[in-house]
Specification:
heterodimer, A: 364 residues, mainly alpha, B: mainly alpha, 14 helices, 72% helix, 1% strand
């Protein structure tokens, strides 16, 4: 038996909508099998992983807090991926955004003003964008592969943050713990809803998603992004510059990742620590693909992947599996998403050798 | 043993996994497939090699398990990108993310356990040469394999018929297909070879370099290996040169930290990553030579017409 693909005459709208759902179902089935192999009751395990975190108000707030950076970064990355720019260093841009945004509350600790918060957000965006400008410059002007450079810079950003919080930015009154001062009230992103911890970062993420959705759908820029992504040559004939697009998409996604970083630090952690992200920048890649690179889809996908973080913690408490199960679920999900996307462009046919025996040798 | 020998020895140990992973990826890319999952295959190799060594007590079996695991894991990528023509960049990332997740879970019960080191094998006579002997001929089997594999790959690609076909597939899959070469099968095998090499590189990490299991212990080496392939302009022996250069950079930062030069350790630790970027710039800034060297079908999907 072998698998053959037959190109569809036109893109299947049905499967464009269905494929993320099929992928999610397959992930759940495989997850159940995995739990069974670990000797757990799969139904109970899946329940505690995917349903329990949704049953209480406080955990819904945690969901929004975790979804905020994922959506924010994922939306930015969708613009990159659509225009064929593979920025996979969002984790580093997230960290540098957080650092740049923290300059005011850490270094100029005494300055208190209602201006602090908006300035922090701006500097966060600037920090992320500047860090993304490195791979953008190298790709646009030095012909250097952006996948590798943006990824290498993640390690550099992590080490830089580690140095800051253990060295010059360490809290002088903090018993030598590797962390900065706790931010003053003026520098803390306020809560959005009275019932819990969800901060304004979540609103930023939704606004970003809507703005990018509008840009992709109704503006010339959105058209330019799609055209250059599908065919650079066609884009050139239309007068679009792929070099300018590298700059645009990388700076945009860097700024979004940076804003996500400073929002997370200012809203949820309220100080800098050696590690401020459980891999949001990488998980956001999965979010972008699960949302089929559509900003509104990414909002839903961000919530799903935020759930896998909470589910991992819940499953560790209630059924005693390692929270590392989260990463496995995330990886599986991306795999299934990518395989299901095939259905959009191709019909998959199973060919049995006996029936195909008449076909010529050379074609196999 | 003198200090110079000790340093050179540590450079070799640091360079071997890079050379191995890069030579495997080089063959994969020569067939036209860009597999960004090297990091994931490597970490899977590392954890399975460590686990099987702990269970059986034999690091040689562990090493074989690492190779097997890397090869099998790579087939997941191959199925998605070759049979289902999924996007290679995204699927490679998926392989890395999944590998890091699965290895973290598999390795959880092995954290903090002292590993068993793969013992060196002295080659008779050669091992007694002063200086060179202890460096090159009193090594573990993985080091010998790394050099043999580079030589083997060079011979295969440029001296054998099958290698010529593989390069044809990588340079123009449509023409190769028209000539009757089985493009998909060639690529499956090339990806599998890349996976096996990355698995062996991982096994070297958990059995030779630091014989223990630490989560995420490959620490970006899979990505550096990918950069090495670009650095080598897809030529096998240059992988060795690049691998040893990077080995030297990562070791020199360790020694600089030991000497306490007053430079924060984090800056020294970021040197290998910064060096990778600098090298990539130097190699790729000339658009024309890059275009000539890169396999022409690299990363492009292929669906055979019938």
């Amino acid at each position: 038996m072998r698998i053959e693909l037959e190109k569809r005459a036109k893109v299947s709208t049905l499967f464009s909508v269905l494929s993320p759902f099929i992928a999610f179902l397959l992930t759940i089935v495989f997850g159940g099998i995995m739990f069974a192999l670990l000797g757990k009751n799969p139904v109970a395990a899946l329940y505690s992983f995917f349903v329990e975190p949704l049953s209480e108000v406080w955990s819904l707030h945690e969901l929004a807090i975790k979804a905020a950076p994922l959506i924010m970064i994922g939306v930015g990355l969708s613009v990159c991926f659509r225009s064929n720019n593979w920025n996979i260093g969002a984790e580093g841009q997230f960290i540098m955004g957080a650092i740049a945004g923290s300059i005011l509350p850490v270094v100029f600790y005494d300055w208190q003003s209602p201006l602090v918060l908006p300035l922090m957000m701006l500097m966060g965006m600037l920090g992320g964008a500047l860090f993304a400008a490195i791979p953008a410059f190298l790709k646009a002007h030095m012909n250097t592969n952006e996948i590798l450079t943006s990824l290498m810079l993640v390690y550099v950003a992590q080490l830089f943050l580690d140095w800051l919080v253990r060295g010059p930015w360490r809290n002088p009154g903090g018993m030598n713990f590797p962390e900065t001062r706790t931010f003053a009230v003026d520098a803390i992103l306020p809560e959005m809803i009275a019932s819990g911890r969800t901060h304004w970062g979540f609103a930023f993420a939704i606004i970003a998603a809507v703005l990018v959705w509008f840009m992709m759908r109704y503006t010339l820029k959105g058209f330019e992004i799609s055209v250059l992504g599908q065919s650079e040559r066609a884009g050139r004939f239309a007068g679009f510059s792929s070099r300018r697009m590298i700059w645009f998409s990388m700076l945009l996604s860097g700024a979004f990742a940076g804003l996500a970083g400073i929002s997370e630090v200012s809203g949820a952690i309220q100080q800098l620590r050696p590690v401020i992200s459980p891999g949001y920048g990488f998980t956001a890649i999965i979010v972008a693909f699960l949302g089929r690179l559509n900003p509104l889809g990414i909002v839903a996908a961000g919530l799903v992947l935020a759930l896998t973080y909470l589910g991992g913690e819940a499953a560790q408490l209630s059924i005693g599996v390692s929270e590392k199960v989260t990463r496995v679920f995330q990886g599986l999900l991306l795999f299934f998403v990518l395989s299901c996307d095939t259905l959009i462009h191709y019909r998959i046919k199973l060919v049995f050798e006996r029936l195909a025996a008449t076909s010529t040798e050379g074609s196999r | 043993m003198g200090i110079v020998e000790a340093i050179l020895l540590s450079v070799i140990t640091a360079a071997t996994p890079l050379v191995l992973a890069a030579i495997g990826e080089l063959v994969t890319e020569r067939s036209g497939v860009l597999n960004l999952g090297v990091e994931g295959m490597m970490i899977m190799g590392a954890v399975s090699a460590f686990a099987i060594t702990q269970i059986t007590g034999s690091p040689v079996l562990g090493m074989l398990a690492g190779v097997l695991c890397g090869a099998l894991f790579s087939q997941l990528f191959a199925f998605l990108t070759l049979t289902l023509v999924a996007n290679q960049v995204a699927t490679g990332l998926a392989l890395t993310l999944l590998g890091i997740g699965v290895s973290g879970m598999m390795g959880e019960s092995f954290l903090g356990i002292q590993g068993i080191k793969l013992q060196p094998i002295a080659i008779p006579f050669l091992a007694d040469i002063p200086m060179l002997g202890p460096l090159l001929f009193r090594q573990d089997i993985i080091f010998y394999l790394s050099i043999a594999l580079v030589a083997g790959v060079h011979w295969f690609l440029f001296r054998s018929r099958a290698g010529l076909k593989l390069r044809a597939v990588g340079d123009s899959h449509a023409s190769a297909h028209a000539l009757g070469v089985n493009v998909i099968r060639t690529r499956y095998l090339a990806v599998m070879f890349g996976g096996a090499c990355a698995g062996l590189a991982g096994a070297q990490l958990s059995l030779v370099y630091t014989p223990q299991w630490v989560e995420n212990m490959s620490a970006g080496r899979g990505w550096i290996a990918l950069a090495l392939v670009v650095f080598s302009s897809w030529r096998p022996w240059r992988v060795v040169a690049g691998g040893y250069l990077f080995g030297a950079v990562s070791i020199s930062q360790l020694h600089a930290q030991a000497f306490g030069l007053g430079i924060p350790s984090q800056f020294l630790s970021s040197l290998p990553y910064l060096a990778t970027i600098v090298v990539l710039i130097l190699i790729s800034h000339n658009r024309r030579t890059t275009l000539i060297n890169t396999p022409a079908s690299l990363g492009k999907p292929f669906v055979p017409d019938r």
